[in-house]
Amino acid sequence: KNQVEQSPQSLIILEGKNCTLQCNYTVSPFSNLRWYKQDTGRGPVSLTIMTFSENTKSNGRYTATLDADTKQSSLHITASQLSDSASYICVVSAISNFGNEKLTFGTGTRLTIIP
Amino acid sequence: DADVTQTPRNRITKTGKRIMLECSQTKGHDRMYWYRQDPGLGLRLIYYSFDVKDINKGEISDGYSVSRQAQAKFSLSLESAIPNQTALYFCATSAEPTVPPGELFFGEGSRLTVL
Question: What is the model's pLDDT at position B40?
Answer without folding.
Answer: 87
